[in-house]
Design goal:
InterPro entries: Alkaline_phosphatase_core_sf, Sulfatase_N
Largest sheet: 9 strands, mixed
Shape: elongated
Strand content: 5-15%
Protein name: Sulfatase N-terminal domain-containing protein
Number of helices: 16
Radius of gyration: 27 Å
Keywords: Membrane, Transmembrane, Transmembrane helix
Helix content: 40-55%
Number of domains: 2
Pfam families: Sulfatase
CATH superfamily of the largest domain: Alkaline Phosphatase, subunit A
Organism: Lentzea roselyniae
Length: about 525
Amino acid sequence: MLLRRTATVLAGLFVLFVLIAPSDLEKFTFEAFLRVPLEGLIGVMALVLVPDRFRKPLAIAGGVALGLFTVVKIMDIGFDMVLYRPFDLVLDWPLLVPAVDFVDVTFGRVASVLAVLAAAAMVVGIVVLASFSVLRLSSAAAGRRPVAIRAVALTAVACVSLAVPGVPVYSDAAATSLVDHARRFQAGLQDQEAFAAEASVDAYRGHPGLLSSLQGKDVVFTFVESYGKSALDLPDVAAKLAQGNDRLKAAGYSARSAFLTSPTAGGGSWMAQATLLSGLWIDNQQRYRNLVASDRLTLPRAFREASWRSVGVVPGITQAWPEGNFFHYNEIYAAQDLGYTGPRFGYATTPDQFTLESFQRAERTGEHKPVMAAIPMVSSHAPWSPTPDFVDWSALGDGSIYRTMPASNDPPESIFGRDPAAVRADYGHSISYSLESVISYVERYGDENLVFVFLGDHQPAQMVTGEGASRDVPITIVAKDPAVLSRVEGWKWDDGIRPGGSAPVSRMSDFRDQFLSTFSPPRP
């Protein structure tokens, strides 16, 4: 008897927790659980009033549904922590493949297989537990029908009579979540058609004289990982930008800065990079797959067709990258092509300073054809610790110097087990390092023919930004030739390498056309 009662109580607590628990960890407060789930009351009544021969099948079906709902809620929590949004039942399944690939590359094939098996076991276990819980509660309620009916009725009356404005007594969170997921499911099914319509417009395809105003220039686009608007107010970053602005001015450079709204936050760098380079809004993996299977004119392709040598320097790529063919680079330098022999620093395969030095050695040493480069840097990728020291450029060599520095192979998710204040401090330090790499590169290797654009790909995780942060990231264009900066005056960007609070904000997908129209003749 005691065992049955204990099982009933535990089953009730499990169902109560699942129905009431928020999909945002920051809302996990004591008060959030002091509510009555309306869905639970309806479920109890349904199981009590249904004929006995239908009760068990209905309870099993309800338990399976509750288990799957629990799995989706866990996914919602995970996606909210990293990407600032709930899990999408249509569009987000492909993101699980890169997650498995990351484990495979970082920890090995055995670890990735074990991770998949553990995830599958967890899903099955949750569904079984939910089914058992609903079955147990249905048996207990059916055995005391009059008591169960009176209890539900009294609870419902209490919820209505005790309701006070601003103080919720009941919860319909589960039903609201289901409705929201249903709406996103429908939108996801329609997204492919919407994207096809957007992609059908490619105004600069075949445009004569494309990029003619930049002839003879080396044009570099550098994506600073996780460099979001929130970084600008951190002491390390603010000081680095102020100091860097003065240094670049002293070296004869001018700069303009603004903000772009990224299609993603907390992760998904490849989608942000594809958005900027293609001029299309890439905010899910389905759009990314459709993009790389298309014939869209990207910035690297536009430069290549205008007689530049177009290269991609991608230290985050550690295995085959067939999507790289879509961008039409003349050359792709993946992690293994950069000549780095030092250790990893967290996620980063190569320190940012070494990545820029490798690019310089390969493409901008001595007499060379004008080059356009897209360089995603990775030192400021989570977990943001440890960060390599900045060293003298002449001492970089093959990267052996980094073996003298503290290194690690910690995965990005390790930030969630650390003190948030320490994580924010490490984040600011890593962004400062990446900015120093950019600023110092321009100082050391820049000349009249260098046009350097650096920007963030997305905001960092909410642990750093806090709840409600925008998706805006800084973008800066630096050049010594005054003719280049005079052409961007119409953009109304702020002077210097730090955009102010009122600097212009545009969608990241708008940048391609803005850049092409500025440095190309008017369209016929």
